[in-house]
Amino acid sequence: MQILEKTKKSFSIVNYIREGLSKEELKDILKILQINPKEIIRENDKNFTKLGLKKEQLSDKELIIKTIIENPKIMQRPIVIINNKGVIARPPEKILTIL
User: Fold this and answer.
1) Considering 10, 68, 86, 92, which has the largest number of Cβ atoms within 10 A of its Cβ?
2) Along the 99 residues of the chain, how does pLDDT read in single tens digits?
3) What is the 8-class DSSP label of residue 99?
4) In the chain, what are the domain boundaries?
5) How far apart are CA 23 and CA 16, in angstroms?
6) Residue of 31, 36, 29, 34 whose CA lies nearest to 77
7) 82 pairs with which residues across the strands?
8) pTM: predicted TM-score of the whole model, two decimal places
């Protein structure tokens, strides 16, 4: 946040854990980030491990998208998108790559 605030550019925050994401919104984010659904999952998160998905299921893109929509806490965060460029901002300095 501090990096974005220092740029003086306007931005909005989407709390997808509380508000949720549609399938189309998630697919748009994946397209902007240029990654597949598996790469946006927090695989070490207890919420993910509780789901008990098998390794071979992680290659099923539609299943992963459905699982993320139903369990948004398993998605990497924060995700920053500016002018159709995006990054998973961990560490926060990664934001600088899209400014």
Assistant:
1) 68
2) 788 888 887 787 889 999 999 999 999 999 999 999 999 999 999 999 999 999 899 999 999 999 999 999 999 999 999 888 999 999 999 999 998
3) -
4) 22-75
5) 12
6) 29
7) 85
8) 0.90
